[in-house]
């Protein structure tokens, strides 16, 4: 155990986050996403945990990229430009974090699948909400 580190952030996850560099992306995906077949680099499973909780824990230590317009991309429902329940929740988590000044956008499911294949890390959750998937792009720490 470590002090001041969320127990959700286990050694494997901390190691993977630490090894990511500026511009690398990570996907946090729901229980229905084919994470194992899309993960060409690192795949971690977080059974019993929802995507919003993982996002909240990760954002406490993961700087979002200030050099890209949308360092947070959230999967949208097919054929819809309206935010899903999960998307609204993700935006609220981001807005309540130190990363609140960064933009987010909804992206089509097919675009999400394509981008997920290029992610450095995919974290699979037990979230069963439809379209509870997002991608974060890592930034730099200036201080």
UniProtKB/TrEMBL annotation:
- Coiled coil (residue ranges): none
Enumerate the UniProt keywords alphabetically: Isomerase
Q: Which GO terms describe its molecular function?
A: D-ribose pyranase activity; fucose binding; L-fucose mutarotase activity
Its BP terms in the Gene Ontology are: fucose metabolic process
Query: Among its keywords, does the record have Isomerase?
Result: yes
Question: What domain of life does the native source organism fall in?
Answer: Bacteria
Query: Which PANTHER family would you find in this protein's record?
Result: FUCOSE MUTAROTASE
Q: What is this protein called?
A: Ribose ABC transporter
- Organism of derivation: Vibrio sinensis
In the record, what lineage is assigned to the organism producing the protein?
Answer: Bacteria, Pseudomonadati, Pseudomonadota, Gammaproteobacteria, Vibrionales
């Amino acid at each position: 155990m470590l002090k001041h580190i969320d127990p959700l952030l286990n050694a494997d996850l901390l190691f993977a986050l630490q090894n990511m560099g500026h511009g690398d992306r990570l996907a946090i995906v729901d229980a229905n996403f084919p994470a194992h077949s899309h993960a060409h680099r690192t795949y971690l499973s977080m059974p019993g945990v929802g995507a919003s909780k993982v996002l909240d824990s990760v954002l406490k230590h993961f700087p979002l990229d200030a050099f890209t317009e949308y360092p947070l991309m959230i999967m949208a429902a097919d054929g819809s430009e309206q935010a899903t329940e999960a998307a609204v929740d993700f935006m609220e988590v981001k807005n309540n974090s130190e990363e609140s000044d960064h933009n987010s956008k909804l992206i089509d499911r097919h675009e999400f699948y394509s981008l997920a294949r290029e992610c450095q890390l995919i974290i699979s959750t037990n979230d069963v909400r439809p379209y509870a998937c997002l991608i974060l792009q890592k930034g730099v720490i200036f201080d």
